[in-house]
Every structure is written in C-alpha cells, then in structure tokens.
Amino acid sequence: MSWLIKSSIGRKLVMSISGLALILFLTFHMSMNLVALFSAEGYNMICAFLGANWYALVATKGLALLFILHIVYALILTNQNRKARGSDRYGVVGKPQGVEWASQNMMALGVVVLLGLGLHLFNFWAKMQLAELQHIHDLGIPGVNGPTDGAGLIRYTFANPVYVLLYLVWLAALWFHLAHGFWSALHTIGWNNTIWMKRLQVISNIYSTLIVLGFAAVVIFFFLQSLCNGTASCPFA
After folding, report:
1. In whole angstroms, how far apart are CA 235 and each of 47, 221, 227?
2. Rg value, the chain, Cα
C-alpha cells in the first residue's frame, strides 16, 4: 500500500477519494440545514441527536482525518505539479472547456474554503458540540437556548450582514472548488474517456450548484427574516 503515499497516481487517488467522501458529508449537512427552513423544532432534534454523543464524536474525528488527508495531499500534489508542469496543477490531459480557471486556482480556492471552514467551526461547532463537551448550558447569546438550539444559533448568526457576506463569498469559492474537484476526482478514479468528459463536467456543475444553493438558501432566508422580524406581513416568519 506504500504506492498510495509514494506514487503520484496513489496520491491523486487518496485525494480524490477523500474529496468525494467530503462531498457526501456536505450533501448530508446541506440536507440537514434545509430542515431549519421548515421546522426549528425538527432541526433542533437533529442537532441534539448529532451533539456530543459517541457516534457523532467518532464521525467528527473521521471528518477531521479526511480534511487533513485532503489538505496534506493537495499541498503535496500542488508542489509536485508546479515543479513538473508549471501552472498546470493537476496535469489532467484533455480538460473540458471552462474548467481551466478553477484548475489553475484550486489552491487559492482551497485556502478560502479552509478559512470559511474555520469561521463556520467558530460560529457553530464551538458553540454546539464543543460547548456540550465542556458542559456549557448557557451560551450567553440572546434568543439561543443552549448548545442544541441550532435554529436559534442560525437565526442569531445570519442576522449579522457581515457573516452573511462572508458566508456567501465562502460558498462561491466552495462552488468553484467542488465543481472542478468533483469532476477531477471522478476523472482520477477511472471515468476519463472522451464520452464521459463533458458529461462529468455537467454533472459536477449541477451537483455543486445544488449543494451551494442549499447552504445559501439558509443564509439568505434567515437574513431576510431578521430584516422583517416583528412585522405582521413578514413572509419569512
């Protein structure tokens, strides 16, 4: 199994598989967040289920390992390909039109995504699962009833236009990163014939758009709700 570490193909395979696993997590996370649009109680039940429970902690550690693997291998491959091919980061032959910009800027996009992840962990994970582990029952945030009140925390966070802007920038970078990364990962694991090249690009774009729009819908909904909160005619109440 040493070829997974030492060979270029092995490194790309590890990066691709870890990336696809993270995309699956994003799909679940986005689907979970959409529940908050329809039922605060239902969303908080999910938050309680995925709080400081042993299975959630195991999953969190697994996700952390996937992120670390993905980032480390991305750095290794970027450095390797810069030396070998200049600006052609992934060295994929026959790339479809429209993916060149994302391909050449995957590291910069990855940095933005990583910074956004840090912000997200600060705003939510630190105030939810981490707070539960520390036995903190009162977050000291108006309108938020403890670490399992995910709906209240979403409402509080996205009432702030600065966070709304930062999250939308993060999601824009995430779209480019996913759209190219998803296509590139599928290409690496073997879907790389000429028939599937353009199909994979379309599938990647559609899937990435659905994920990002799902997250953005929650951000924008709760921001608009905060703007008209207290008015009788508010359609977002």
Report:
1. 25, 10, 11
2. 20
Q: Is residue 101 pLDDT above 70, yes or no?
A: no
Q: Considering only CA atoms, which of 67, 64, 92 is closest in space to residue 8?
A: 92
User: What is the CB-side half-sphere exposure of residue 24 using CA atoms within 13 A?
Assistant: 10
Could you give the 3-state DSSP secondary structure of residue 237?
A: coil
How many other C-beta atoms are found inside a 10 Å radius of the C-beta of residue 214? 19
Q: Which amino acid is at 234?
A: C
Task: Give the pLDDT score at 100.
Answer: 59
DSSP 147-203: TT-HHHHHHHHTTSHHHHHHHHHHHHHHHHHHHHHHHHHHHHTT--SHHHHHHHHHH
> What's the rounded Cα separation, in Å, for the pair 57 and 139?
20
Give percent above pLDDT 90 in the chain: 52
Work out the mean pLDDT of the chain and round it to a whole number.
84
Mean pLDDT confidence for 63-92: 73
C-alpha dist (Å) from residue 96 to 19, 102, 191, 196, 197: 20, 12, 13, 10, 7
